[in-house]
Amino acid sequence: MTIDCPTPKHEEEVVLLGHGAGGRLTAELLDRLILPALDGSPGPLEDAALLPGYRELVISTDSFVVSPLFFPGGDIGSLAVHGTVNDLAMRGAWPLALSVSLIVEEGLPLSELRAVMASLGKAAQDVGVPVVTGDTKVVGRGAADKLFINTTGIGQRHGSLHPSAGLARPGDAVLLSGPIGLHGTTVLSTREGLGFESDIVSDSRPLHRLVRNLGPLGPAVHVLRDPTRGGLAAALNEIAHDSSVAVEIEESAVPVPEPVASACDLLGLDPLIVANEGCLVAFVADDAAEETLAAMRSVPEGGQAVRIGEVLPDGPQGRVTLRTLVGARRIVDMPLGEQLPRIC
């Protein structure tokens, strides 16, 4: 009698939460599925792109699915404006116009929707950018989580300020405009009822005025990036990869607020991979570092700006290392996925 071995069953690959986290899984999804389908060209994947045929105009699009909708220091409405404005700013652009589209779950209290829209409108007014078009869709109960917001922003670049993730150079100074970890820990604590939100407030805010202050430095500003999903670790790894350089930062120089450090210690999180929504990392020519820091510190958004590292003159391309408090070095890897899902 012949016994046939059963054919091995292979589970179909599915999308995971980590695919939307801004780490290695996101990069794999883009490289293997999304970009090939769109005939995406190789090169740095920027926060915003130049509009073909319009040399100084920049476009960015984003979707916001944060849970909960409201958290200390912000909400999904103001976050949508700030996030889109900041993506434009990271390409050196001033916001000109926004679009806003809503996907609303049936059953959402109108009072919550009204509060979100009031906050979104106020944030846009404070930035000085008009919302010029949009769309609204309502889906059945369970088809979405209360409210998702999609935005598109159009901006115009400042003179000779043309930063790109692929322009970091050996010898560059690495600057950070403020403390890290505030947004991610605030959202997580609020969502899970951990109690840290009494000491931590999201840093959600627009950065376009801070970037405008860097305009006179022009070509000395090589890279700007806001470390949102995947935190500072993801942002530095993306820049190191896209620029083919080695980056080293000093643990003692990275500003981590004490409440954030305590929350991360308790939860087993690395502050370097926790999301931010109100700071940026800049790679600038070393001889312009002090002038850049002065320009950052001249506005509230950059009042705590510091130098945290440098681009090494040599070293493995695409590698980020951290010099620890005891003088040792460790590799800062690109996060695999997001330890804190639904934070933006």
Present the secondary structure layout.
Layout: H1 24-37, E1 49-50, E2 57-64, E3 70-71, E4 74-75, H2 76-89, E5 93-105, H3 110-127, E6 131-139, E7 147-157, E8 173-176, H4 182-192, H5 208-213, E9 221-225, H6 231-243, E10 247-250, H7 258-267, E11 281-284, H8 289-297, E12 306-311, E13 320-323, E14 329-331
Parallel strand pairs: 5-6, 10-13
Antiparallel strand pairs: 1-2, 2-7, 3-4, 5-7, 8-11, 8-12, 9-11, 10-12, 13-14
Features:
22% strand; 8 helices; single chain; 344 residues; alpha+beta; 28% helix; 7-stranded mixed β-sheet; globular
Overview of this structure, please?
The chain has helices spanning 24-37, 76-89, 110-127, 182-192, 208-213, 231-243, 258-267, 289-297, and strands spanning 49-50, 57-64, 70-71, 74-75, 93-105, 131-139, 147-157, 173-176, 221-225, 247-250, 281-284, 306-311, 320-323, 329-331. Helices cover 28% and strands 22% of the residues. It is of the alpha+beta class. Helix 2 (76-89) runs parallel beside helix 3. A 7-stranded mixed β-sheet has the order 9-11-8-12-10-13-14, with helices on both faces. A 5-stranded mixed β-sheet has the order 1-2-7-5-6. The chain is built from 8 helices and 14 strands.
